[in-house]
Design goal:
The complex is a heterodimer. Chain A is mainly beta. Chain A is built from 11 helices and 50 strands. Chain A is globular and about 100 Å long. In chain B, helix 5 packs antiparallel against helix 6, helix 7 (189-204) packs antiparallel against helix 8 and helix 13 (442-456) runs antiparallel to helix 15 (497-511). Chain B is mainly alpha-helical. The chains are: A mainly beta, B mainly alpha. Chains A and B meet through strand 25, strand 26, strand 29, strand 30 and strand 31 of A and helix 1, helix 2, helix 3, helix 5 and helix 18 of B.
Amino acid sequence: MLFAQQRVTGTIRDSQGPIPGATVTEKNVPNNATGTNSDGKFTIVLRGKSNVLVIKSIGYRTQEIRVTGDVLSDTYLQSESKGLDEVVVQGFSNKTKITSTGSVSTISAEKIRNIPTSSVQNTLQGRLPGFTSQQRSGQPGKDASDFQIRGISSLNSNGNKPLIIVDDIEYTYEQLSQINVNEIESISLLKDAATTAIYGIKGANGVLVVQTRRGEVGKPTVNFRIEGGVQNPVKTPKFLNAYQTALLRNEALKNDGLQPDFTQADLDLFQNGSDPYGHPDVNWYDVVFKPASLQANTNIDISGGTPNVKYFISAGALTQNGSVRDFSGPQSEVNSNFFYHKYNFRTNLDLKATKTLDLRIDLTGRFGDINAPKANSGLLGEIYQYNRISPYAAPIINPNGSYSYNPKSIGADNLPTINSRLATQGYNRERSTDFNILVQGTQKLDFLTQGLSFNGKVAYASTTKLERGLQRFDDPPVYRYNPTTDTYAMRPGTPRYVLSPLSLIARPGSTYKSVTVQGILNYNRDFGNHNINGLAVFNQNTTSDLAILPANYRGYSFRVGYGYKRKYLIDFNSAYNGTDRFLKHYGYFPAVSAAWNISEENFIKDKAKFIDFIKLRASYGLVGSDVVDGNKYLYIQQYDQSSSYNFGVSPVKYSGFSEGTLGNPDVTWEKYKELNIGLESNFLKGKFALTVEYYRNIRDDQLINRNSVSAILGVGLPKDNLGSVLNQGVEGTFNYRPKIGNLLMDFGLVFTYNKNKVLFKDEPFPDYPYLLETGKPIGQPFGYTWIGYYKDQADIANSAKPLGTVPIQPGDLKYADLNNDGVINDKDKSAIGKPNFPPNLTLGLPINFTYKNFSVNILFQGQLGYSLILGSNAIEPFQTQLQDIHLQRWTPATAETAKFPRLSTLNNSVNSPSAFPSDFYLVDAKYIRLKTVELHYQLPSKWLPFGINKLNAYVSSYNLATWTNYSLYQQDPEVASGSQGDSYLNQRVINLGVQIGF
Amino acid sequence: MKRYIGKLLFFTVTALLVLNGCKRSYELEPLERLSDDYVWDTKDSLGTNAEKFLVNIYSNLPNGFNRVSNDYLDAATDDAVSSAVTLVPVTNVQLGGGYDIFDNFDGTWAANYKAIRAANTFLNNIEKVPVKGTIPTGVPLRKAWRAEARFLRAFFYFELVKRYAGVPLVGNSVKDITSEDVLIPRNTFSDCVEYIVGECDKAADSLRTDPVDDGNFGRITKGAALALKARVLLYAASPLYNHNGDVGLPGGAAAQKGLSGYTDYSKDRWKRASDAAKALVTYGRFSLEAKFKDAFIKQNSPEVILSRNGGAGSSIEVTNGPIGLGNPTGNGRTSPTQEFVDAFLTINGKPISEDPISIANPTGYDVNNPYLNRDKRFDASIFYNGKQWLNTQVQTFEGGVSKPGTGVQQTKTGYYLRKFMGDYETAGNYGSTYHNFNYFRYAEVLLNFAEAENEYLDAPSAEVYNTIVQIRKRAEIIQNSTPATTYGYGLKDNMTKDEMRTVIRNERRIELAFEEHHFWDIRRWLTAKQVLTGTLHGKKILRANSGLVSYETRDVQQVSFGNANRYLFPIPNSEMIRNGNLVQNPGW
């Protein structure tokens, strides 16, 4: 028998160690609560009579403990894997792991908080099944990955973007990438009809749900985190030097029947480097880029609360520097380097206004500055282009300190060197300001009927962008130095001896605004063994941006669920919602889902105790997509302002009207029929866990261009609901968590296998069936089949070849003449390789070791089953700078071992990847990456002074190592196919951080 | 108190919800878009918006200057090569490619059908608009507009016919999206010619007469309708279409008969062509401009029948002018060939091979000074080494300012194209010049007449001779020939029909160069195979330190016309597979 005012101490742990920050509340005394410290310890004074403590922690099953003494023995919480009451995010409301019937995968933000990248979506690859992304660029502030949930299924290029919901409010891709991970509690993917149908017309591409952190009852805790890191490119391009390039240039010119550019004397000078001004040899990559750049990240958050007021307040600052060297000097003081500065804050407040009314007010702001040099934001692209610069184009700087130019540049005459323009031409800066506010009230309506509540919210989200630049529009004065006469020649054309003045540029960017109003009625009640729950949602959203037509959306969503003893569950989800994009505004999107918790059956409970949990579930339903390219009202035809024409001896411009694209009054949303079957299980008290899902989805009525109508019609055709695609896949996770003494380990496997097939795309039937795109995946590349090199003139005469190109010579790429007509033309193109995105298989191997206060987290991540082909500037000689691969060219002597066709200076030849895309250039890519490595040490709390109760030090890294399977290209495996492979290089980051808690 | 605030907040939220839910903050229709009713306004007697629709039809007329990926169409013939350092479409054509069933460097199938639809849309809707007013001839304005649209439609059809021969004639209706409506088979070549001629005839008398008033310069006039008719009939009478199957073109299947040309030869077609050209001469409203070069840069030249009013500027000079000269400096896009340069006559009106310089003939052709004593059109068409320009001399010798030899775009032949440019021989820099692309000018009509008449007759008549004389006179060719002849201007007496044909074709080549005639002429004459086989040449010009200049012929471009099916463009494969009723041209 215990008395009130009993003081109880204890430790809360899980199988891996103490749990800091768990909430301990006395049952039936809601305002008597405390939290555990960094060693998992707590002290509480009991005031009530229940003698029961309720222990809660995110990611763990809530546990009630009867207190029998003043010191509680260590209490082990069941981790997530066994946490059947763990909250599972569902549209507009939450369920628990055991009562959910849909397909959801969730990651706690705790796991990704230390990953040194500025965009949230870059951290999810390989961690969440069903999530696929590729990071196309590493530019500070613009490095967010493209991502998809369960692959792609729409022929509409914009029709595959997942819906992003942050605290129930729709966000844009860009807003998501700016969110500070420190503010996030968890990220969930909603993947099947059961979970997405409630989003109706917007749910077809899956939903990514972010929940931000909220205050917990307890003392204020302050978290301070400071990190600094070094970024360097994952892979830097290597180019041949001036001598090698000149040698190959002469060879190529000879192949083309042209005179050589360089004499033997020139070649000798390139080789011995004795004439650095007349015969320069410059590695422009090294001139422009530095090997490493820095980044820093600082965050602070304060959270805590009383039962009446709970708060989470955070602020952060991120600086990411660019990789360009500092060229500012006496001639120019502006910083033209790339950089990204981001500041953000969040205040999440929960107020208990009355016993039955909860209020919530969230305020968020983000301010970002992205800087890029005016000279060229695609700097690497310029270095890749032989027509712009070459190792022998110009010296870096003339002996008298002036800048030089490339007299042979093509496209821009006598182009001043990159360094001269970087130094003088200034910068362009994009400033974006995000401001969001959300106000919500939740009123319990138990007085009407038990278990009913109403939740209403209004949210306003806005992004305002401004571009500001300090720029010179004219090229700097540049001179050509002649070492023989020691004279300088002005660049021909426009003579200029001084820099033109800097101009200040300011122009508006976007002014995105989104207003959302939601009302939700929620009902959940148990009647003995029966549970009935229901949900009704009203949701209205208006978005607008500058002159783009505002989009209006309104929806009503419903859910009715029934559960028997938590064993048999069935849910009906539906949405009735509409958009003003279509003449018939509203559509109905139903879904049904059911689950069977096999482990709740007695035969498992009694006979198979090693099974903790097994659930089988299935769902089937319809979801929609209202994405319309160009934000147009497709259902009406309109007239456009068109080209003008001059009349009159003194010409007067008359403006014109033309007939716009025809209207399609029947236009409607895309319909996605989704079938999902899933199995979730845990064994041996969470030592093993396995989740597997299979889905088979068909997307009909896709809004695509009619492609079978003759051009004789003479007018643009509206999009029509014609396309159909089958999208299917298998995905899942497997975890094994062994323990050897104090060494805790967790090995995971996350796999995402996905494949799609176009069932219909209004394609006229081609002359040969292999030209048909129907039946192939979306984005299937077509091209020639490479069968070797033309050996000699006889071979050329006897083989099929293309007409009207640079005449074929021995050593040119030879392609299969699929239709045997003796000519290589478009009729010989067939499906080659695979689409670039999404890859068929995305794998993640998360590995965790914890030993006392040390922990190591590793993620290997890989993608297989996709193709990569790059454009001419990446690979075609003398479009691109010459690279090692060009040394392995075809010559009569090396015909047998050649890895690259004969060199030519003429573009668009049969060897060009852009004019003749073939499987010579299309590589079947795959890669494995050591995506993140994190070493973590938590100082024992007894060592900590000044009231600090937690101090973590960690080293984390991003993109530490990469293995690829191709040698043709030197680019990162995540660059976009068809691009020149010259976007800002993806970065490897090594980061050092300290986290302090008070 | 706290409870009270909470409730208040709750109701505020609810109220906001309800209010926002009901309020319509944006218009339901896209009001900023132009509707049908707005364009075809049934109350506007000025027809302001309807006229804008007509302007749109005009804007579909091709712009001939450097039209094909920055090159002249005629740089795909033996007259010039592109100076581009990359492989450009016109060069592809010279190599025997450039157009096949998939790609067409000049693929205007869809563009012309779009323009034809626009004309039909206009004709079908303009009656709704109560346009008042008349043109000076007394014809109601609305009727004149209709005639302009009809002419333009005929013009666009001819753009198709000269490429593909017989094409589907859409008729007057505006087609609907249902694909049955546009699965139209090709009409015969003959049908298409008659349709275009008929449309010109119907439009002619409702159009403005010539010369048109200053404000309407650039509009379709009666002269344009007569000129289009004359050109269409000239083409139709030409060997490519008007033959007995004995000219070496690929034979067609039964279904192809009549589509790619007439099924028989008829001499009377030449007569019809010559009559049509004569009608324009008789019309009497046009005459040759005094100076050849002014026909391209003067705003209201009496020679111009219809041109695209390009406004004033220096674009032609900058695109095609010699590199290294002017500010902005010329880009020297077009390199005329030696073949073209050699086609220019001597100032005596004779071919250079027949008119060597001598003491007795001081105005003859000098191999060592090849640009002296040439037809004045040469000086107005070609930049050659030593020609005065921008107050200096053009240097196309190796290493000269305009032929530096390094990687930049520059002449490949030693020549640049002077034609169409303003008078900048003595100017310090480029100024502003009117650049109108002439669709029809009087010199062409005269040459059309001379050609058709010569082909019709057994031997050239005085009328044929006199027509050529008119052209040569304007070209400032010396009238008195040695030995003296009846007509002078270098024209021999008693030429046979074949000799006269050679004279007329050469005259046409140098007079109408780069005006999008030669490309089609060598096709309709079936001479493309002959002139586009082998090598095109230029000059390698060397200057010794003494300043002495020497000339060497250099090979510039291997050319190949390819098979005879290439005389016509193929119907695009994409159209063939979409419209099962289409029949491909023979040999494709």
